[in-house]
Amino acid sequence: MITLHGFAASNYYNIVKHTLLFKELSFQENLVYGSSDELMKVSPVGKVPAITTPDGFNLSESSVICDFLEETYPEKPLYPKNAAERATVRQIMKISELYFELPSRRLIPYVFSGTDAPESVKDEVRQVLSRGIIALNRLCQFSPWIAGDEFTMADIYVYYVNTIVSAFASTQLNWDVLAEIPGMKEWNAAVKESNTAKQVEEGRLANMPEFMQHVTAQIKAANAG
Ligand SMILES: N[C@@H](CCC(=O)N[C@@H](CS)C(=O)NCC(=O)O)C(=O)O
């Protein structure tokens, strides 16, 4: 059986969990937080998520894990057969990671510490998000799925990226980023309606109290040091 290492409050973890559930693969969850010794054994940078396969192969990086799962378990495919269409799916995923996820993440420490981000940081984040908005407006089809008529890995990936945009960028910048992409909110609501997304969300909510305790302890330790 596959082991999924990490914690369900992580959107990256949930990308892989959603993929495993979609493909109906049997897996067990091993609750572990970032940078722990246990995680370092399976993830070279000590980040969540990582997986261990039944034959003992360890792998980290959410999009790489998803590619591996697709290649190893091609049943219930999440990438189109056509190479150009497959590349477009990956392009949407990459752009959402670089221009939506990563800038939004820069604001997480301010949200967790209850402070307002400096204007210079907000400006930088706004600029990167603006490029993401332009690119995703050009690439996303929402017909009905993000890359066309097939539900693909990009639907899973962007859905969980958007949770970070909404929770951190939109709140800190007072900017409804997703509303800048016509069709995005309706598509988001459609993915949220799926039983798989609901199951993943249950896991996230169950983990949140413990995760917040973990974050609070980390902030205290950092302030003490
Ligand atoms: N590029 C990585 C990012 C993973 C990541 O940032 N994970 C966060 C949790 S959402 C983490 O492990 N943070 C703990 C740490 O940085 O020590 C991926 O796609 O898997």
UniProtKB/TrEMBL annotation:
It comes from Psychrobacter glaciei. Gene3D superfamilies: 1.20.1050.10, Glutaredoxin (3.40.30.10). This is Glutathione S-transferase family protein. Signal peptide: none annotated. It holds the Pfam family GST_N_3. PANTHER family: MALEYLACETOACETATE ISOMERASE (PTHR42673:SF4). Residues 82-211 form the GST C-terminal domain. InterPro entries: Glutathione-S-Trfase_C-like, Glutathione-S-Trfase_C_sf, Glutathione_S-Trfase, Glutathione_S-Trfase_N, Thioredoxin-like_sf. Residues 1-77 form the GST N-terminal domain.
